[in-house]
Automatic annotation (TrEMBL):
Domain TANGO6 N-terminal intervals: 3-290
GO terms for biological process, alphabetical: protein secretion
Biased composition regions of type Basic and acidic residues, renumbered to the chain: 210-224
This protein's name: Uncharacterized protein
Domain TANGO6 HEAT repeat residues, every copy: 291-439, 444-533
Length: 616
């Protein structure tokens, strides 16, 4: 305790000594006369006093005055600056820097001054749970906290207002704005939120009854209505002027607060005040405002996941990967939940869902992986929360180019056959987005990979039905419009166009046979990628069952029941397709198509049938 008191005394004596030295320089040193004149001019424009009986507060106000003098000097120098003409003989020379540019050494000096202002003039007057406590920042800050709290004036809210508005005034200069907002944005937001939204904004912070009688009654009232309104305008201006993802990040930190900090020195965990309910509520509203603005989804996503690190998961270690997944899950739950101030859930989904789809189109590879993960997890969260609205505003727009292929439209009246129904770029983008949603990867799209992913993730009966539909052995609904077909695009993709009318019956028959042959070859290629699963063998057995009537291994009545309800020509067509399928599968896979114990009993049948097909 004596050591701590000694540190506080040393700090207080140092501040008083520095103020005394500055006063002597200003009064006695002629080299400081210009600064003294500027200082007096700046002080005359202030609405608050720079001197009191509190040495710490005197130090804060003096630093603010010096920063205001610096700002005014930089403005005057820039007004008098006339850029020199560039020498045409040396065009490679860099242009002269404006006189308000600070050197690296000068920037460090300004940063030190700002650190003193924040530590001594803002942090001590923040309410418990608002912002990061001083004792959580550094040992020096912890010492400052004890000193300032011990000498704290009952006019805490009024002092907080003075320091905050002065810093915002200084930040109006571009060269100083960057130094202030890059390091101290969170503290300024915490201060403004307390000044605007705190239920105690009209009361005194750290004020005893005895001290309140001694203070000026006007200052004891806290903030006036005009001052509170100016703070609210300053907060809104600050939120709009800063890079929005950084605003989101700082608001989330301010909303969450610091609940506990582990002390390395003593190995203990100390619990601090949680964020007040009013601050959590207001930060939530401010975050929702960011979200509901144009491109608000990207702003929120960048504010949470941007800058997580390098690598696929946003970091090099397993901890970084896990943290990145948690962040993506948090963003997904935020985006799937409708804010309270939104007019309706449907209006929210109508505005947000198109922005979620845009997350698939980020160009930067590292950022794209994170954004695609967020978009996919948001899709899943929205399906659970609002399945109908998700289908209307997310799923259907995603699949719109493919849905156009299925719509039955009147194209017979088109004056020009071959008209493009869906552009190549739209189809490519659609398939690419579906691919990214399945695999979280930003590589070239592949329809085959999407189908394989679906077949592997589906239940066996569903996967078998889809394979039959792809083979033409089962009716699919909906079907592709018979008047449309896919044609090659100029960029390596495809586009949907209207078929040209073919009057020659032989040509029509040739196109149909070629199309069926191509479909069977594609299906065989698809099944070759599924050999490790049982799906290929199961499908082959299903094809064998369809031909048992031809091989004489089943009763004709059973065969009739299998095709009951179909016209005779369709029955014959299905049998021919089945026969062709088995021939292609036997040729490509042989007996290896049956690869487990359930399939082994059918292997002898397949071998004999293979010889029968070859002989036929």
């Amino acid at each position: 305790r004596m050591a701590q008191t000694s540190q506080e005394d040393v700090l207080l004596q140092t501040l008083c000594h520095n103020l005394s030295v500055l006063d002597q320089k200003l009064q006695q040193d002629s080299n400081w006369a210009t600064l003294q004149q500027l200082r007096e001019r700046v002080i005359s424009q202030l609405t608050w006093s720079v001197r009191s009986d509190d040495a710490v507060w005197n130090f804060v106000t003096e630093v603010l005055v010096q920063l205001l003098c610096l700002k005014q000097t930089m403005i005057e120098l820039l007004e008098q600056f006339v850029p020199p003409k560039r020498n045409p003989k040396s065009p490679e020379c860099a242009p002269a820097l404006p006189p308000d540019t600070l050197s690296i050494s000068q920037q460090k000096t300004v940063q030190t001054a700002l650190q003193f202002v924040i530590t001594l003039g803002i942090c001590p007057y923040l309410l418990p749970g608002v912002g990061t406590p001083l004792r959580c920042r550094s040992d020096f800050a912890a010492t400052v906290e004890k000193l300032v709290c011990y000498l704290a004036s009952p006019r805490g809210m009024w002092r907080l207002h003075i320091v905050t508005m002065a810093l915002l005034d200084i930040a109006n200069h571009p060269s100083l704005e960057n130094l202030i907002l890059t390091r101290h944005l969170g503290d300024l937001l915490a201060s403004l939120c307390q000044l605007v939204y705190s239920p105690n904004k009209y009361q005194q912070n750290l004020m005893s009854e005895e001290a309140s009688r001694q203070e000026d009654s006007e200052k004891q009232k806290g903030l006036t209505d005009a001052e509170q309104q100016s703070c609210q305008q300053a907060l809104q201006k600050l939120l709009d002027r800063v890079y929005q993802p950084i605003v989101v990040k700082e608001l989330l930190i301010l909303q969450g607060g610091i609940k506990q900090v582990v002390s390395v020195c003593v190995g203990k965990t100390r619990t601090f005040s949680q964020t007040p309910a009013w601050l959590r509520h207001r930060c939530g509203q401010l975050l929702s405002e960011r979200l509901m603005k144009p491109n608000g989804v990207q702003v929120v996503v960048r504010g949470i996941v941007e800058g997580a690190g390098a690598g696929i998961a946003g970091g090099q270690s397993a901890e970084a990967a896990a943290a990145d997944w948690r962040k993506c899950d948090i963003v997904a739950r935020i985006l799937a939940s409708c804010p309270q101030q939104c007019l309706s859930v449907e209006e929210y989904y109508r505005q947000v869902c198109p922005q979620v789809l845009e997350l698939f189109h980020i160009k930067d590879k590292l950022t794209a992986r994170q954004f695609q993960r967020v978009a996919t997890m948001t899709f899943l969260s929205m399906v659970k929360e609002q399945p109908e609205l998700t289908d209307k505003y997310l799923l259907k727009p995603l699949l719109a180019p493919l849905i156009c292929c299925l719509d039955i439209k009147d194209v017979e009246g088109c004056s020009q056959m071959g008209a493009v129904i869906v552009e190549e770029s739209e189809l490519t983008c659609c398939v690419d987005d579906i691919y990214k949603k399945c695999f979280f990867l930003s590589i070239s799209s592949g329809c085959q990979d999407i189908i394989l992913w679906f077949l592997q993730k589906s239940e066996p009966p569903v996967a078998m039905l889809v394979l039959k539909q792809l083979a033409g052995l089962a009716q699919s609904s909906p079907v592709k419009n018979p008047l449309y077909h896919f044609t090659a695009g100029s960029e390596g993709g495809v586009k949907l166009t209207v078929k040209e009318t073919v009057s020659d019956e032989d040509e029509t028959l040739y196109e149909k046979v070629s199309s069926e042959q191509w479909r069977i070859e594609c299906l065989a290629q698809l099944l070759s990628n599924l050999q490790e699963s049982n799906l290929t063998g199961d499908f082959f057995i299903e094809c064998l069952k369809g031909l048992t009537c031809l091989a004489g291994e089943m009763d004709d009545r059973l065969a009739t029941s299998r095709t009951n309800g179909l016209p005779e020509w369709e029955q014959q067509e299905q049998q021919l397709v089945t026969l062709q399928l088995i021939a292609v599968l036997c040729e490509r896979f042989g007996h290896l198509v049956l690869n487990n114990t359930v399939h082994l009993c059918c292997r002898s049948l397949s071998l004999s049938l293979q010889h029968w097909i070859v002989a036929a």
